[in-house]
Amino acid sequence: MTTDNQRGSDGLKADGTPYRVLVVDDSIITRKILRKVLGDEQYEICGEAEDGGGVLELYKSLRPDVVTLDIFMDQVHGITVLKEIMAYDNNARILMLSGAEEKNRSSKRFPWVPGGMW
Known about the structure:
Blueprint: E1 20-24, H1 28-40, E2 44-49, H2 55-62, E3 66-70, H3 78-88, E4 94-97, H4 103-106
Parallel strand pairs: 1-2, 1-3, 3-4
């Protein structure tokens, strides 16, 4: 049996280098929490964006291993950003997040998500 102290870091690849993460969220609090939680697991935060505008260019320049992407953002919606990144790189690893508290926003079904995921 292993404990948290005995297991390896989730943020490291097999070769010992950290996974690079691009954090996209309009909430400064959420970005701060993600930096802390992911940093504690040795993930490298290679970039941050507070809205969806320009994320594709940031993705292209930083080449992260993983993107955390807020679904509901004011300037450019997370689904729009998801479509842009997936059109550029259909192997992108994207974790969609939402802190939406409004019932009508958090229960919304998305008409299109790559790979047929709902």
